[in-house]
Amino acid sequence: MNPVIQPLGDTALVLSVSATLEDQRRLWIMQKLLQQQFPAWWVVLGVGNLTVRFDPMIEDASVIEHGIELAWQRSQKRMEVASRHHDVPVVYGGKAGPDLARVAEHAGISPAQVVERHAAAQYVVFCIGFLPGFPYLGGLDPQLATPRLDKPRIKVPAGAVGIGGAQTGIYPSASPGGWNLIGHTDLRLFNPAMIPPALLAPGDTLRFVPTEVRA
Amino acid sequence: MSIAILKTGALATVQDAGRYDGAQWGVPRSGVMDIPAWLIGNLLVGNEPDQAVIEITLGGFKAQFETDCLIAVTGAIAPVTLDKQDIGQWRTVSVKAGQTLRVGFAETGARMFLCVSGGIEVPLVLGARATDLAGGFGGFQGRALKAGDALPLGEPQGPAPHASVRPPPRGDFLRILPGTEWSAFTIAAHQTLLSEAWVVTPDANRMGARLAGLSLPLAQPLEMTSHAVHPGVVQVPPSGQPILLMADAQTTGGYPKIAQVIRADLWRIGQYRPGEAIRFIEVTLGEALDTLSAQRRWLAQLETQLKWRASRST
């Protein structure tokens, strides 16, 4: 997919590339480059896309567009993205993961095998969004992909580990949610009193470490 | 120096301009839903224009002042009284310790702003005093106000203009530009968006307003990954019923964006009550920028005037 830049209203431009890890890696580099070079722009990462928001009375959209194009080209030279690895302790099943059986049934394997596969993968943080500190993770075993619940829960507790479609993730704060909940972690993903407030950053890697598996 | 909250109505929160740097961590902007009303209200009470205020939703608000201060109630038009005396809005009012303010139900618009000299002195969290209701931080203890709260006030900052300002009319339409997925919708969907009167449903809050009307179909199913969203985006979930995103909108979303309300009209999006109808009008980018430029000029001239009057009132 060729990079495409489109306007979103009068105050944002959106760069769309492909949702592959390779392109996402370039977006991480771009985000860093743009933040350093143009601190007044608001740069927001998505999965396979990057949005720059700006004040159209101060900045000209064509200048922003040029800046995005240049940064995309420069991101091709392999620059290392400073990243960290996180081990996330998880209690699977029981009250901590009420949908573990549902995921197992959908995948046609046992709950213990779901835990094994979920904990075997190394995940990559594609971006942070949706909720404060919420990581979009790449790397879920395709066999564990499970459709969202027909009726979303009114309240999913903070620390819930879930699978929604082909994605897995951790709820950093209590919120409504339609993901299948398979476990729970006590790790705090978001703390507004810290800078940065989010524990995870784009490019970080992560593994789920089962501390307990309940029936 | 504080204000005692006696009644909050549907929702009252402490807000300022919001968190502009938070999107990289998934933190919504939050902040007041009506920037001009907040800015002018602060100027009317002699504040620097960036102070925190109380945003009142729909009305039914009551508070008692524990200290002498200056106030201005801006935003939507509602009956406002001080010790049962009508005091009006969009003007500087002197308040004595012990007096009680009532903000009745909005007659035009939906959100009022109680601006107080010195500002609402809550701690800065991630660079702002705005309440993040979903995240549970910022504002007053990270939550909506409730009866019994005592909000601390800051030191009065400067002379006030003791003036009144004519409120800008909200109007019945919002100007839009096509969203990034505009062309993924059918021609009929485009026509429907621009011809239908979109009724704000009761499912409307600071995150967004679900609009009722005809369905807006896609030309063909569209698989989308997550991408940035922000206030003023009109996104369409699979139901076909659009959602207009507001100040507390999450930072990323996965629904196609059919339109974006122009920057100059963002202050209007939170001024519709459930049951009221919105009409969308498509404009060109040039028109959007001209409108924004005119709005900035109006605000800058007002600021100069009000500061000049304040300097003469000492």
Automatic annotation (TrEMBL), chain A:
Keywords: ATP-binding, Hydrolase, Nucleotide-binding. It holds the Pfam family CT_C_D. Residues 3-200 form the Carboxyltransferase domain. It comes from the Bacteria. SUPFAM superfamilies: Cyclophilin-like, PH0987 N-terminal domain-like. Gene3D superfamilies: Cyclophilin-like. NCBIfam families: 5-oxoprolinase subunit PxpB. This is Carboxyltransferase domain-containing protein. It comes from Silvimonas iriomotensis.
TrEMBL record, chain B:
Residues 150-170 are annotated as: Disordered. Keywords: ATP-binding, Hydrolase, Nucleotide-binding. It holds the Pfam family CT_A_B. Gene3D superfamilies: Cyclophilin-like (2.40.100.10). SMART domains: AHS2. The keyword Hydrolase applies. Residues 24-298 form the Carboxyltransferase domain. InterPro entries: CT_A_B, Cyclophilin-like_dom_sf, PxpC. The keyword Hydrolase applies. NCBIfam families: urea_amlyse_rel. This is Carboxyltransferase domain-containing protein. It comes from Silvimonas iriomotensis.
